Amino acid sequence: MKFFMVCLMLFMITIPAVAQEETLVAGDLESGGFGGPVIKLGSFNGETGILVGGRGGWIINHTFIIGFGGYGLTNRVLANSTGPLGERYMNLGYGGLELEYIPESNKLVHYSFMLLLGAGGISFRNNDWEDWHWPDDNSHYKPDAFFIAEPQVNATLNITTWFRMSGGLSYRFVEGLESNISTSKNLSGISGGLTFRFGKF
């Protein structure tokens, strides 16, 4: 819990301090929203992994985003363990609450600061074999859970009034994984990605 509280506090300090007489949301509240696909590249078990997923959220006063995102591993990454069929490959996915602060969203190119807090799961699959060949091995296919915090910095290009494209750099902090497939350390690391945002900004 302390781990996630620290990450949340680090995110909050990116928001400029305000005087006591001011409020976070002043005047009329303007709402928007967006959604779109996301592609990420990162290191998992020492190999390059490709994550594909999506995210969406509520945009408040063109400045704050509260939303959700989910991502899954799409290419073959070796698991730490082997089985009777030889090499095993990871199945991995995670998602959760996403918070984003955008200081100057009206600029053609602008920056934002984002934080994902959530959970995920990891299991394995055999290479090009059906599970029924080894029924006694099925218990190993149950996913192992983990917690994740992922701060991210984005640079966003306003292409049209309804379409924006972001490039981002993030770091995955994975905790609580107990598995012979991988470790929290081997799942933690830097990711780079692209987000395609469609909506009302």
The H-and-E topology, N to C, reads as HEEEEEEEEHE
Count of distinct strands: 9
Going by CATH, the architecture would be Beta Barrel
Helices and strands: which structural class? Answer: mainly beta
Helical run tally: 2
Name the overall outline: elongated
User: Kindly, what is the distance between the CA atoms of the first and last residues, rounded to a whole number of angstroms?
Assistant: 33 Å
Adjacency order of strands in the biggest sheet? 1-2-3-5-6-7-8-9
Radius of gyration from CA coordinates:
19 Å
- Report the CATH topology name: Porin
- Total individual domains: 1
The biggest beta sheet reads:
8 strands, antiparallel, barrel
Helix content: under 10%
CATH uppermost class: Mainly Beta
Strand content: over 45%
Low-confidence stretches: 129-140
Please tell me about this protein's structure.
An 8-stranded antiparallel barrel has the order 1-2-3-5-6-7-8-9. It has a single domain, classed as Porin (Beta Barrel), CATH 2.40.160. It is mainly beta and 201 residues long. The longest helix has 11 residues. The two termini are 33 Å apart. About 6% of the residues have low confidence. Helix content is 7%, strand content 59%. The chain has 2 helices and 9 strands, in the order αββββββββαβ.
What attributes does this structure have?
201 residues; mainly beta; 2 helices; 9 strands; 59% strand
What order do the helices and strands come in, and which of them pair?
Blueprint (H helix, E strand, L loop, with lengths): L1 H11 L18 E14 L2 E14 L3 E10 L4 E6 L2 E16 L7 E18 L17 E15 L4 E13 L8 H4 L1 E12 L1
Antiparallel strand pairs: 1-2, 1-9, 2-3, 3-5, 4-5, 5-6, 6-7, 7-8, 8-9
